[in-house]
Write a structure and sequence with these properties.
Chain A is an alpha/beta fold. Chain A is about 30% helix and about 20% strand. Among the domains of chain A are: about 1-105 and about 240-300, FAD/NAD(P)-binding domain, CATH 3.50.50.60; about 120-235, FAD/NAD(P)-binding domain (3-Layer(bba) Sandwich); about 490-545, no CATH class; about 550-615, Sulfite Reductase Hemoprotein, domain 2 (Alpha-Beta Complex); about 630-785, Sulfite Reductase Hemoprotein, domain 1 (2-Layer Sandwich), CATH 3.30.413.10. Chain A contains 25 helices and 39 strands. Chain A has a 5-stranded parallel sheet. In chain A, strand 25 and strand 26 form a beta hairpin. In chain A, helix 10 crosses helix 12 (about 460-470) and helix 13 (about 490-495) packs across helix 15 (about 520-530). The two termini of chain A are about 50 Å apart. Helix content of chain B is about 5%, strand content about 50%. Chain B has one domain: Rieske Iron-sulfur Protein (3-layer Sandwich), CATH 2.102.10.10. Chain B has one helix at about 115-124; strands at about 10-15, 25-30, 30-40, 45-50, 50, 55-60, 65-70, 70-75, 80-85, 100, 105, 110-115. In chain B, a hairpin with a 6-residue loop joins strand 8 and strand 9. Classes of the chains: A alpha/beta (about 850), B mainly beta (about 120). The interface of A and B includes residues 515 and 543 of A.
């Protein structure tokens, strides 16, 4: 059997892949013609081209086609089909016969007939070439506009943002954005969110003409308004590429698209059409998942399997410029046929609407904007007609902090439930693969392909893996690495009970091999949390993570930064002068950190002990900026100066910082103390934060800044200073003993069964009866604290380790280069 | 880079006791920098170029050593790319360049690293 495929887009590629899998027994000859100069690439993630490059977007390399025995003709479009002879002829003159022909010609951007579209600076948004042209033009443009406020239009606007254009307008003909997916209220909220990112939206605007001499300079609308713009992207919809089919006499729809039946056959049974060029029951399916399904049906049909395409769910979930947008089922049921439940939180920018049948039994569809974590579960509820809970509004309430909302639901799904719609993988298929021994997400991705396309189903796939393993009675735990088959918590118990004090002892006792960069720092951290021995003690020095090993933070170029501790951010003028003099002497770049201290960059390895000698002589000690340890306790100035201050937040912050300095933990720990509810120290963004009240202190825990900001939650209110410290002792020690490696307190709490209520019970109500033990263990660490740098400075053996060349200890690394910026040095840019 | 035994030139790097157990040091050889590692548990020595090919940083000697399925490796302190100490190939990213590796021998507590003679002439 010889099959010719016209078109090498995502769907054309998927067809080849499916055909190869299905025809393993009876080999087929595959010939592919593609118009673009490169093999199929991931058009869905086109905007990521700016961050990555073409190679990352490619679905397969030309070598792949060769290895599979597929003849691939790139940059060579087919120009004619001869249905009688069953041949196709390409632009370059190649003629190929076929037994079956598959048209996967896709679509082109629809260009509305607006005068001026030919001007310079007007672009389409469809191919990598379009992006290349936009990139070349963007440096000349300060403002940009996009015609079309649909899904692709907003992606195009994101592309303009990525190109560095700041003044961007999205122009939509309809009264709202994404008119096919979301409603007016949803659109308003989306517009607000986009506005915060600098994208302005104009709706109900009909463009009369594109103005400008040779290059575009603006848009004239039919309501006689005008928008100035230096650059324009048109993304007003798609137009199926059906010209070949029309020339070959195949029937097409009135607005384009090659008419196909349930088998995706055109009027000619030897010719199929799939993807965005195919018109099934007057519908063009402009998403990748239905295109893949069509590829599957044709491949199956050609291999003699019974399979039919009967339409496809157009539910979609995506992140538009950082805003989650999803619509599922039928989001536009007529008002008489359903009841709507709406949840709106303008403050957080969340809008959700679900439509349920009037009897309240079934979910019809809905829209989620700003927060869409319930999407998978809601979609499955619609698709599988699952019964709704007694109070359907509970489906819309933001998920509980433990993130278990989707996890609790997978058990209720039937085996047929389609989990990965891109690759059409069902819950049953994932479950079977898990039982066959593919127990990790990576394995499941490899053997079922679930989660490999858009990735939207990944959380649900993981939940199904976990649920299946649990149903088999398997104990699920995260082991550290190939060298230790234990979780961090188990390792801590083993090390404590057996009084193991070095990495080698631990490895001998319960490990295999030599260890690695994953387990060594974990063990080193546990040893430090339990015994508080000097971390560079013989045998444990090389088990430390590389920053801990040199007690400094490695920076670009291989030099280090130095952060002396400045408890509570309070410093005397004399100490400030010392820092300045040291920085001057050793030519260090100085910067105030976010944690109210001073960071000194650009220190050569061999200078570190000299720098610290001077700092220690002036009364400084290590700031542990290099360790998974307590960093800073930030403070506001508090009642000593501030007219609003309730208590002396600086003194309390210093007391706390000095209590927990040097404390090793699964991850870094940050803290802050605010002297009143104005919260100038931002304590609620810290691992533990304290805010003064009229009656004492409020203690907040498990907050985080960083990439996933999370507010700390109130653990206990109106505490006196001593009780507050006891609770912090218990909280920190409990965290140290139970958290997974490299897990900040916020993530730890999110995963903790029972969440904050459980934590409060353990810490405040001592429900486990370990309060005194935790406090005792913490006191031991507090009492055995020593400044690591002081020990190094005073120990010539340890100092020896701080040289770049073992055979030329005085010499600094000659490859280190600096540049100058604003009268200070900076590391030379790396390649 | 592979070194054929006929053209090997051994130079004295340092004393064995200068190298921390299960860790590395950087050895200066003319203009070159060579990372030298000692796996104390098996009494094995390895040497590679000190330059991490990923971001061109002189850093591998400060990396953490370990094994993957018994193959010795080192992780660069910058981005934790790992490299085999047997043949220098990058273990975390197939597309990444591999390291030059050098033979090591210890005689009377002195560590020698083998380089081929052309390198030796350029370097000295």
């Amino acid at each position: 059997m010889k099959i010719v495929v016209i078109g090498n887009g995502m769907v054309g590629y998927k067809f080849c892949e499916k055909m190869l899998t299905k025809s393993a027994k009876a080999p087929v000859e595959l010939v592919v013609f593609g118009e673009e100069p490169r093999p199929a690439y991931d058009r869905v993630h086109l905007t990521s081209w700016f961050e990555h490059n073409t190679a990352d977007l490619l679905l397969a390399t030309t070598e792949w086609y060769e290895q599979q025995g597929i003849r691939l003709h790139l940059a060579d479009p087919v120009v004619a089909i001869d249905r009688e002879q069953r041949t196709v002829r390409s632009h370059s003159g190649i003629t190929e016969t076929y037994d079956y022909l598959v048209l996967a010609t896709g679509s082109a951007a629809f260009v509305p007939p607006i005068p001026g579209v030919e001007k310079k600076g007007v672009f389409l948004y469809r191919t990598i070439e379009d992006l290349e042209m936009m990139k070349a033009y963007a440096p000349h443009a300060r403002s940009g506009a996009v015609i079309g406020g649909g899904l692709l239009g907003l992606e195009a606007a994101k592309a303009l943002l990525d190109l560095g254009i700041t003044n961007i307008h999205v122009v939509e003909f309809a009264p709202r954005l994404m008119p096919r997916q979301i409603d007016d209220k949803g659109s308003l909220l989306l517009q607000e969110k986009l506005g915060q990112l600098g994208l302005k939206v104009l709706t109900s605007k009909n463009t009369k003409k594109i103005t400008g001499e040779e290059s575009v300079n603006g848009l004239q609308f039919t309501d006689d308004t005008f928008l100035k713009t230096d650059m324009l992207v048109i993304s007003a919809g798609i137009k199926p590429r059906d010209e070949l089919a029309i020339a070959a006499g195949l029937p097409t729809g009135p607005r384009g698209g090659i008419v196909v039946n349930e088998q995706l056959q055109t009027a000619d049974p030897f010719i199929y059409a799939i993807g965005e060029c195919a018109l099934y029951q007057n519908m063009i399916y402009g998403l990748v998942a239905p295109g893949y399904e069509m590829a599957e049906v044709v491949a199956a049909h050609l291999c003699g399997e019974m399979k039919a395409f009967t339409g496809f769910d157009m539910s979609t979930r995506l992140k538009l410029i950082g805003v989650e947008v999803a619509s599922f089922g039928d989001p536009f049921s007529p008002a008489g046929d359903c009841h709507s439940i709406v949840f709106e939180d303008r403050l957080k920018g969340v809008y959700k609407r679900i439509d349920i049948t009037p009897d309240g039994q079934q979910l019809l569809g809905g829209i989620l904007i700003g927060e869409a974590s319930a999407y998978n579960m809601l979609l499955q509820t619609v698709k599988n007609k699952l019964a709704l809970p007694a109070d359907p509004a509970s489906l819309l309430v933001p998920p509980a902090k433990d993130g278990a909302s989707t996890g609790a639901g997978v058990d209720g799904l039937p085996d047929e439930a389609l989990i990965c719609s891109c690759e059409s993988v069902s819950k049953g298929a994932i479950g079977e693969a898990v039982m066959a021994g593919h127990e990790s997400f990576d394995d499941i991705k490899k053997c079922t392909k679930a989660g490999t396309c858009c990735g939207g189903c990944a959380p649900m796939v993981k939940d199904i893996i976990t649920a299946t393993l649990k149903s088999q009675g398997k104990y699920i735990r995260s082991v550290i690495c190939e060298h230790f088959a234990y979780s961090r918590q188990e390792m801590l118990d083993i090390i404590r009970i057996n009084s193991l004090r070095s990495f080698d002892e631990v490895l001998d006792h319960c490990g295999h091999g030599e260890g690695c960069e994953v387990c060594k720092p974990v063990v080193a951290s546990i040893l430090a949390s339990l015994w508080n021995d000097m971390i560079l003690a013989q045998g444990n020095d090389t088990a430390q993570d590389s920053n801990d090993r040199y007690l400094a933070n490695i920076q670009k170029g291989g030099t280090y930064s130095v952060v002396p501790r400045i408890p509570g951010g309070e410093i005397t003028p004399e100490k400030l002068i010392t820092i300045g003099m040291v920085a001057q002497k050793y030519h260090l770049y100085t910067k105030i950190t976010g944690g109210q201290r001073i960071d000194l960059f650009g220190a050569h390895l061999s200078d570190l002990p000299l720098i610290w000698k001077e700092l220690i002589d002036a009364g400084f000690e290590s700031g542990h900026a290099y360790g998974k340890a307590l960093r800073t306790v930030k403070s506001c100035v508090g009642s000593t100066w501030c007219r609003f201050g309730l208590h002396d937040s600086v003194s309390y912050a210093i007391r706390i910082e000095e209590r927990y300095r040097g404390l090793r933990a699964p991850h870094k720990i940050k803290s802050a103390v605010s002297g009143c509810i104005r919260e100038c120290a931002e304590a609620q963004s810290k691992d533990f934060g304290i805010i003064a009240t009229e009656k004492g202190w409020n203690l907040y825990v498990c907050g985080n800044g960083g990439s996933k900001p999370q507010h700390a939650v109130l653990l206990a209110a109106d505490l006196d200073s001593e009780t507050c410290i006891r609770y912090i002792d218990r909280f920190l020690m409990f965290y140290i003993k139970t958290a997974d490696p490299l897990t900040r307190t916020a993530t730890w709490l999110n995963k903790l069964d029972g969440g904050i209520d459980y934590l409060r019970n353990v810490v405040v109500h001592d429900s486990l009866g370990i309060g005194a033990q935790l406090e005792g263990e913490m006191q031991l660490l507090v009492d055995s604290y020593k400044c690591e740098w002081k020990e190094v400075v005073e120990n010539s053996e340890l100092r020896k380790r701080f040289s770049h060349f073992v055979n030329s200890p005085e010499e600094k690394d000659p490859t280190v280069k600096f540049e100058t910026l604003r009268n200070q040095k900076k590391a030379a840019e790396w390649k | 880079m592979s070194i054929s035994p006929t053209t090997i030139h051994w130079f004295l790097a340092c004393k064995a006791s200068d190298v921390p157990s299960n860790g590395g040091v950087c050895v200066k050889y003319g203009e070159e920098q060579i990372a030298l590692f000692y796996f104390a548990r098996k009494d094995q020595w390895y040497a590679t170029q000190n330059l991490c090919p990923h971001r061109k940083q002189m850093a591998l000697s400060r990396g953490m050593t370990g094994t993957v399925k018994d193959e010795p490796k080192v992780a660069c302190p910058f981005h934790k790319k790992t490299f085999s100490l047997i043949d220098g190939r990058c273990l975390s990213d197939e597309a990444e360049c591999s390291l030059s590796v050098y033979p090591v021998k210890v005689v009377d507590g002195q560590v020698y690293i083998g380089v081929n003679e052309e390198t030796a002439m350029v370097a000295v």
